[in-house]
Amino acid sequence: MEMVSKQDLELFRTRILSDIEQLLVSSLIPPTDEFDWLRSKAIRKMMDISPATLQNLRITAKIRYKKIMGSYYYNRTDLQKLFEDEQ
Prior knowledge:
Elements: H1 6-28, E1 37-39, H2 40-47, H3 51-59, E2 65-68, E3 71-75, H4 76-86
Antiparallel strand pairs: 1-3, 2-3
């Protein structure tokens, strides 16, 4: 049986704290990949727009979307850029 020293425990604690810090930092950084897709309801709430407005944007091909099993998914970055340009 191997004995664990105080130094071993201190090293272990330091590694755990470092790992936790890295996890927290990575979860606080907003996602930057272009495949950040959200459902219609979340987009409407976030952008404060009506279902008809969102549908018109989809029909006029101003935004990318995907239809999966009857639900529409929209690219968050596309919508943010669209509304920033209009302001």
